[in-house]
Amino acid sequence: MRSSNPVFSRRGFSRDSGTAGYAAPQAGATVTGENPYAQGTAHPYATNPYAQQTPPGVRSGAMTIDDVVSRTAMTLGTVVVGAVLAWWLLPIDTENLGKSYGIAIGAALIGFVLSMVNSFKRKPSPPLILAYAAFEGIFLGVVSNVVDAYVSPGAAMQAVLGTMAVFGGVLLAYRTGLIRVTRRFYGFVMAALIGFMLLMLVNGLFALFGGGDGLGFRSGALGVVFGIVAIVIGACVLALDFKVVEDGIAYGAPREEAWTAAFGLTVTLVWIYLEMLRLVAILSGDD
Length: 287
Description:
The protein is mainly α.
């Protein structure tokens, strides 16, 4: 099952077209599709020495859930450290707000470039992933501080708690089977995600050339509706990410892929947090 998260889609922890002759997943695992890490496939990791030196279904140095948790903690921790430093070190008073905004926008652009580089690299690069997290943290720190100071006191903490609630809720629903990631679910999420992104792109173009908030999709009552829709879509993407990570572990993906998992989960959580922050700002009565 592929995720709609471009990070996981590019890496391809698992494929949709199952064929005979591939190594079996680890005992007790339930997965869908072809094992991209099995010996003899055309997948970039077919030359993985672990796949060549160990019997099918047994992977020395394979990715585990502990690897994913620890790498994700490091990546999200870097985001938090960057955000805290930006919050405290970059002033947002009237005199310096423009300068701090400039730094935040620059950090966001660098983070975007690094996210694209990390998404299309064949093998994960921990330094580049942590660099992405650091620059993303700087951007989030400034934006959160501004919203907290000028729009709604406590908005950043509310957004953090909301993001944690979404993560915990989706994880619980996924583990208990309330959310079942199927091809139909995947198709629905992909269609919703593409449609939402296209709509936001059109809104952004109208805002760029027409001024104001474009078509008004990101403010007022419509902003609340689309904010909730964005968070729901983000939660669905998170469920797809969990499925991809689960398949990767079951198929014996190389341990280095835990960094890819951490990066993909971080991208999704950052998006959910930003939508939460925007929603809180709109509900405060001033966007």
